[in-house]
Design brief:
Layout: H1 3-39, H2 42-68, H3 83-111, H4 118-140, H5 146-175, H6 180-207, H7 217-227, E1 233-242, E2 245-253, H8 256-260, H9 262-273, E3 280-285
């Protein structure tokens, strides 16, 4: 099976899974915000806001999968696959901003406590945990890439929040520990922010055309030198469009051995780095 056919099948599978996940998340986010307001629990409201943002993020991930599958054109010679790391960056960044707002609200709740109805908080927390678990299971069946991982991270963040809400609701119900609601919100928000920073950094690294993890400029230089130590390497660049497509550009000083051994050089670099030969470009200069 060719890489293009395999990628198309993965995109179709991810698209279907994201549609299911986004629909479930959007439905429950609305329900959770309403019951959070009724119960007075910031954790439930916060979880509802998180899930609402997750629904938007899942929709963004869905759009990314659809757009990324579009064919390359003369104006977009690399196609639209970079939209996936763009979506992952937006999703990761939202996992930083939204919890910061929840922390701000939690501090206000500590200063000005509000009445909480623990039974409703407990019920909605349990339902949220089940829904998030189902959505997480659905997304886990998809093909892994940065875009899908950012979507899954949103869901995992909500699972943590829902689990915390259940624990806090029980603590309030049996021990009247109302202060745990804002404290729990702060703790879970910090955990979510850490995950958001990781995804955002990964996506930013791709968008800045940084050297992909697991690839090395030195390996390419050593490979070329091993083939012919007289070849002068002016520059090596390694970058990726998304996690799956890695490219390399090697600028070499023009000499007869470079012209004669170009195919061998590309073949050996491909063997040493696992970069497809068609993604390796030799730029021969006269200086």
């Amino acid at each position: 099976m060719s890489d293009s056919i395999r990628e198309n099948e993965s995109a179709i599978k991810n698209r279907k899974l994201l549609i299911w996940a986004a629909s479930l998340t959007l439905f429950f986010a609305t329900l959770e915000i309403v019951y959070g307001l009724i119960s007075g629990s910031l954790m439930i409201i916060g979880d509802g806001v998180h899930m609402g943002s997750d629904a938007i993020s899942l929709i963004l991930s869905l759009v990314a999968v659809i757009i990324a599958s579009k064919a390359a054109t003369t104006k977009k010679t690399f196609g639209y696959k970079r939209f996936e790391p763009i979506a992952a960056f937006v999703n990761g960044f939202s996992l930083i901003l939204i919890p910061l707002y929840i922390i701000y609200e939690a501090v206000n709740r500590i200063v000005n406590p509000v009445e909480i109805i623990p039974i409703q908080m407990l019920v909605i927390g349990i339902i949220g945990l089940l829904i998030n678990g189902l959505v997480g299971f659905i997304l886990s069946k998809g093909s892994s890439n940065l875009n899908m991982r950012s979507a899954i991270l949103h869901v995992v963040a909500d699972m943590i929040t829902s689990l915390s809400a259940v624990i806090v609701a029980l603590a309030i119900l049996f021990f009247d520990l109302v202060w745990l609601d804002p404290i729990g919100s702060i703790v879970t928000s910090i955990i979510i922010i850490r995950g958001g920073i990781k995804i955002t950094k990964e996506a930013f690294h791709i968008l800045m055309e940084g050297t992909p993890e697991g690839y090395s400029v030195e390996v390419i230089e050593d490979t070329v030198s091993r083939i012919n130590s007289s070849i002068t390497i002016n520059q090596v660049k390694i970058w990726c469009i998304n996690e799956a497509e890695v490219y390399a550009l090697i600028r070499l000083k023009n000499c007869p051995s470079v012209i004669e051994g170009a195919q061998k050089i590309k073949k050996e670099i491909a063997k040493a780095t696992n970069i497809p030969p068609g993604h390796i470009y030799l730029d021969v200069t006269s200086f």
